[in-house]
Amino acid sequence: MNILLMYSTHEPSEAHVSRLKAITQKSHVAVAHSEEEAIRAAEEADVIFGHRYLRQVMPHVRRLKWVQSTAGGTDRLPLQMLRDKQVILSRCTLFSDVIARFALKLSDSLVTRKVDEFLRPSQPKWHLELAPLPSPKTAMVVGMSHIGREIAKILKSRGLFVIGASRSGEGLAAPFCEARYNAESWPTHLKEADLCFLALPRNTSTEALFDEGMLQSLPKHAVLVNVGRGETLQTEALVKVLRGSHLGGAGLDVIVPEPVSESDSIWKTPRLLITSHAAAHFPERGPAIEAFAERQLKQYLSKETIEDLVDLNREGV
Fold first, then answer.
1. From residue 179, how far is each of 100, 139, 154, 176 by CA, in Å?
2. Domain coverage including residue 62
3. Are residues 109 and 251 in the same domain?
4. Which candidate, 235, 245, 244, places its Cα nearest to that of 267?
5. Which of the four, 41, 72, 257, 260, has the lowest number of CB atoms within 10 Å?
6. pLDDT tens per residue, range 219-271
């Protein structure tokens, strides 16, 4: 068996490479440090861990059977190429709890206004102009899959009334939601949310879903947080709403389009906190991914069902 490693998150450790070889007993493990190396190694690869150069290597694969992505989403992967070559795909939802905790940190910072102190130049005086927002009582989680489940779980543990929203009104987050609504009804309940968390995948039904009308439906004091896909929220509409003094604040770990310079006008948007795709990052991420890949490989070789298998024939994938 030939294994190709091309993680976009970190450089594979030597110990990880050794463990993969030990699991398969008879295997060659290649580590791609560049697109060119990836393409060369992909020709003989049976398994690929990581998706850094996946789109580039797919035209060159000849015997590929399985790709283990390190991403939770699939919308940026060459799904049609994988279908055409009958390659199975699994994703990685390992860090949904990490992302959820980050989402709550964003909302907490905006509700309490604590973040304002960090964004100001150091000055020898106290800044108390911005009063904290009302303590949230109700939260809506839009997107009830892995990340949504973890967000809802934390919110419920804090005693908030949690509203779950998804296309079907069901999902992994359901056990942690006091109320659940499907795509036809959940927008009418935005007015109830003190906090609104977006944990949506990107597909034809979610693209630009949160427009100005949706944002205006939230209460004036509401806080919006997006840790799903940037394409699901219309950034221009959000900026307009915030500059119009609606919403208590917004925290974005994903944004489209991304600011390209320090002079971008979006940096001057009031009550807007932007982080740079930081939600899933933590010091032990690399070792955690490696351990997950090794566990997945053992299951694959023993013909057991691997975790986070993607149904490439499902609508919306």
1. 19, 10, 16, 9
2. 2-94+283-301
3. yes
4. 235
5. 260
6. 999 999 999 999 999 999 999 999 999 999 999 999 999 998 888 989 999 99
Q: What are the beta bridge partners of residue 4?
A: 30, 48
124 and 139 fall within a common domain: yes
Per-residue pLDDT tens digits for 97-112: 999 999 999 999 999 9
Strands (E) in 151-285, as ranges, are: 161-165, 179-181, 195-198, 223-226, 249-252, 272-274
Considering the domain architecture, whether residues 40 and 107 belong to the same structural domain is answered as no
Query: pLDDT digit string (tens) for 206-215?
Result: 999 999 999 9
Type and span of the H or E element at 298:
helix 285-301
Q: Which tokens sit at 59?
A: 């035209």
State the amino acid at position 86 in one-letter form. Answer: Q
CB 281 within 8 A of CB 254: no
For residue 147, being part of any structural domain is answered with yes
Q: Express each pLDDT in 271-311 by its tens digit.
A: 999 998 899 999 999 999 999 999 999 999 999 999 999 99
Report yes or no on whether pTM surpasses 0.70.
yes
Q: In sequence order, what are the residues at sequence separation of 6 or more whose Cβ sits closer than 8 angstroms to the Cβ of residue 60?
A: 39, 42, 43
The rounded distance, in Å, linking the Cα atoms of 48 and 7 is 9
Rounded Cα distance between 17 and 5, Å, is 9
Same domain, 85 and 111: no
What is the Cα–Cα distance from 14 to 239, expressed in whole angstroms? 46
In what helix (H) or strand (E) does residue 28 lie, and over which residues does it extend? Answer: strand 28-31
